[in-house]
Hints:
Strand order of the largest sheet: 7-11-12-17-16-15-14-13
Largest sheet: 8 strands, mixed
Shape: elongated
Bound molecules: adenosine-5'-triphosphate, magnesium ion
Amino acid sequence: MSSEEKPGAALPVHAKDNPNVDAEGAPTKSALKKAAKEAEKAAKKAAAKEKEAAQRAAQQAAADEDKAVDNYGNISKAKEADAVKLKDLTDEYANKTVTFFARVENTRSQSAKLGFLTLREQGYTIQAVLAAAGDDVSKQMVKWALQTPVNSIFRVTGLVKKVDAPIASATISGLEVAVTRVYEVSRAVDFLPMAVRDAEKPIPESGIVDPEDKSPPVPMHIRLDNRVIDLQADINQAIFTISSAVEVLFTEYMFKHGSRKFNTPKLVGAATEGGAGVFAVTNYFGKTAYLAQSPQFYKQMLIAADCESVFEIGPVFRAENSNTHRHLTEFTGLDFEMVFNNHYHEVLSFGENLIVHILTTLQKEYAREIATIQRIYPRAGDFRIKDNKALRLKYADGIALLKEAGVDTSEQDRFETDLSTAMEKQLGKIIREKYDTDFYVLDEFPMAVRPFYTKAHPTDPNLSNSYDFFMRGEEIMSGAQRINEASELEQSMRAKGVDPNAEGFKDYIDAFRQGCRPHAGGGLGLNRIVQFFLGLDNVRQATPFPRDPQRLRP
Ligand code: ATP
Ligand code: MG
């Protein structure tokens, strides 16, 4: 074989300085290997390029077929848009194109080209129609939207249309949306521990059963374990709209009457209102601190500091192992305290008017929310306030009413024991029948059942200038005129077996040594107001993330 015919003859042949050739100018073995490898690489590259081009062409073809490919899918494909809220969608939006965010409550496929979604936002639902037609909506788009797991969050754009027959499955029953764009904002997992729809049924503890409903009811503890899903239900959205409104109405009313809002400490140095009910924080820099059981001392110290009228909305902690329908270990307290001119009844009337204002405003302005809750808990809509006024009775009148009804009140007759919960409830029933009201006040409680800072009755040593407020026969507030003089306070403490020199009392008692105007006030529980106003079975239903002796999560 001549050198020209040797494989690799094309390689440069400068024998002396070229490592790829041997002395005779023929390519070396390694040079041949390398050349072969490179050729192989180039071939592979070309093939990959070809494949990629083919793929792109196929994709393009598919896209050409699915003309709506940009109208659905991941939200990253969406163009920016302003969104309306479902609650604002009225008939005025008919024939307009809107964009909104909503969860998928339900999907229903009619055919490959037609599907329906029920979409939900904050308790409002609307029907959305996906109909494959023209370039806007493709069969692929209909399929994709209907296969998205229930509870996923969509951003939907569509034409609002009036419907002939009301849509029973949606709260916005007179309109529907013809979808032209639908993007997934956030995807729900396929498996839900409970469905939002389960939370739109009464808790089994309520005893309300729907004989038509075959699915097993989900008990309250499972709902609370899965509170984020639970809270998405329309009934819970409505409950917390009401709860929020109570705080706002309370605040507005107090401001309107010249009061100022304060935040008093929740970490305190001593367990001053009875040791049993207090949570200790044992790692407070080498000392023990306690979680405040009430803002009582601080409200009064602010009155002594010439604040005249103060209020607070804040957490209240009670370390009581009370496993009942109305006790929490942490609740939201609505507290107020104010000076008066002549008589503590000025403050008592103020408190009554405050509650009547809150409850009647709720009835007027939150009728939709009340109706939503009433669908499940029928008592939500029947709270009675006769003549829009509180009924005020004396504690002794309450006892007399119970006695009249045949209740044994021998213990209460001695002015040493408070009404039991059962008695309170019974009194609530009696008062509703007799006076046609669910909101009433008992005044002049026995001194023996009230705390040491309570002002004694001016003429009857057994009684005190104190009151409780009740809704449907259950307590929502305790209040009183307070002692505003240091030596009288010390005396009252001793009479109740409390040592005024014990830790934690000095600052409080000293507050009154420079003079303090006569004052009165009260402490309300937000969770209970909402519970009893709406006739809910359990205070936990009116608490977003309840804390009780068994529950510290979620
Ligand atoms: P109860 O007799 O129902 O246990 P209380 O007399 O101990 O209540 P107060 O100390 O008078 O309660 O508290 C004032 C208000 O705070 C109550 O009327 C109620 O609305 C609310 N409240 C008290 N304790 C609780 C609790 N454990 N959980 C929820 N709310 C509470
Ligand atoms: Mg009380």
